[in-house]
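for the writeup, i need someone to sanity check this before i put it in the appendix. the sequnce is what the collaborator sent (i think, or maybe the updated version? ugh). structure was predicted straight from it, no edits. if anything looks off just tell me and ill rerun, i have time this weekend
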Amino acid sequence: MTGSNSAHIPLWTPEQLQASQDALLSQRDPGDDVWIYAYGSLIWRPDFPFLERRAATLVGHHRALCLWSCINRGTPEQPGLVFGLDLGGSCHGMAYRIDASQIDSIFPRLWQREMSTGCYQPSWLRCSSDTGDIRALSFVMNRSHPGYITGLSQEEQIAIILGASGSCGPCSDYVLETAKALRQANILDEQLDRLARQLEPALRTRQILAA
């Protein structure tokens, strides 16, 4: 298992958030609609209007519980785990097309949600879909970030997920909602599916014991 001390992850300042957003948007043609690639909670809770949604595959990165969450799905004392796009493999997810006129209203909220600690490297990456390739904004894991974690066994992941809860609710809800959304979209993620099948009975047992 490798990772840094999750209890000491500073929040980005408004200036840092704005600079990161501006740098990413400077790499697009003004007036063009924007695609956003979703692989975790953005699949089942995008929280923004979109013109189109389609299944899309990203090659070169895979969905992984590789980021400590000390606010949304955990606390500094008992952090949870959330998904990132880590190096290697491929990821089946969803892509949303955003109207160019909506970017100025959508992106500040999106950056606050995804980039509050600078944990990702926002990148324009080529994704494939049944109706052609698209260039989509993808939040790729920053492996030098102090919240990056890898090498956890499934048993360790389950223990962490069961014990963590943050401002957005239990970590278990986050993981199970993502697994459910993928199944509903006919997207197969065997690793996440195995984890969810182990997590659900463990969660029921904990709830019974707590009653």
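The chain has a mean pLDDT of 94. The chain has six helices and nine strands.
thx in advance!!
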